[in-house]
């Protein structure tokens, strides 16, 4: 049994023990949560509402990624841009996701712009900061070599910047996506009539703790699939050149 699977088993056992000791409807057992989870998947509501939430997160993160990459590289390469953009990044990092969710609900109503912009605003500062730090960590000798040999912009991008910034891009993507997932739930709770957050709000209104936990677990499974099935695979592909150099 792998460490991750062992953690899941121990967490489930600990929760079941707590449910037995507390003996309250507010702390449902593992069986009750599993029953709700199966029901959500079988009746199709999970796929329907998850698809809506994933689309909103994807659009918001794509917007944040484009803006943050441009801003992070500019801040790392130009001192004036760094000093100009630094307050905005720090301010964005300190504002809670709840504030972005509330403001976007007020400003944009229940349309698609609401969750997309909320996710972008919450994700972009952390992503820009990691990219800025990645740009600053690039070896100056490599930059000088590229200048001496007059590499084209395309060659510099493919052979220098992308390999050098890959760790920062993936670290920023993980952080940005985690923040985006948290904010999208808040937005859907406060101002949307669909999505995982909306379903969580319905379960809360009914005081159905098992359903709240079931939706939360399914949400966590999606994040795990995204991490282990997508990000880590892309990161290994992007880092193959490092292993080749070591060999």
Biggest sheet: strands, sense, closure? Answer: none
Overall geometry: elongated
**CATH superfamily descriptor:** MetI-like
Mean pLDDT: 84
Q: Cα distance, first to last residue?
A: 31 Å
Radius of gyration: 22 Å
Alpha plus pi helix count: 11
Number of domains: 1
Q: Remind me, CATH topology?
A: MetI-like fold
Classify the secondary structure makeup into a structural class. mainly alpha
Tell me, what is the CATH class? Mainly Alpha
Strand content: under 5%
Q: Which range best describes the helical content: under 10%, 10-25%, 25-40%, 40-55%, 55-70% or over 70%?
A: over 70%
Order of helices and strands: HHHHHHHHHHH
- Per CATH, the architecture is Orthogonal Bundle
State the total count of DSSP E strands: 0
Uncertain ranges: none
């Amino acid at each position: 049994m792998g460490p991750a699977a062992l953690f899941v088993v121990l967490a489930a056992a600990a929760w079941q023990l707590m449910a037995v000791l507390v003996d309250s409807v507010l702390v449902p057992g593992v069986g009750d949560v599993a029953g709700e989870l199966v029901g959500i998947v079988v009746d199709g509501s999970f796929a329907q509402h998850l698809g809506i939430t994933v689309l909103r997160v994807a659009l918001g993160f794509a917007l944040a990624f484009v803006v943050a990459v441009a801003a992070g590289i500019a801040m790392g390469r130009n001192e004036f841009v760094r000093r100009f953009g630094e307050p905005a990044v720090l301010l964005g990092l300190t504002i809670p996701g709840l504030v972005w969710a509330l403001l976007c609900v007020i400003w944009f109503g229940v349309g698609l712009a609401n969750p997309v912009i909320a996710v972008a605003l919450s994700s972009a500062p952390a992503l820009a900061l990691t990219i800025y730090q990645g740009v600053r960590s690039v070896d100056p000798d490599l930059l000088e070599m590229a200048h001496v040999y007059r590499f084209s912009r395309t060659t510099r991008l493919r052979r220098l910047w992308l390999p050098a910034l890959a760790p920062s891009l993936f670290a920023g993507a993980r952080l940005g996506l985690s923040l985006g997932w948290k904010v999208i739930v808040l937005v859907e709770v406060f101002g949307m009539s669909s999505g995982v957050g909306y379903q969580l709000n319905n379960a809360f209104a009914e005081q159905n703790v098992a359903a709240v936990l079931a939706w939360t677990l399914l949400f966590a499974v999606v994040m795990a699939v995204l991490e282990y099935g997508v990000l880590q695979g892309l990161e290994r592909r992007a880092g193959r050149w490092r292993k080749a150099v070591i060999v």
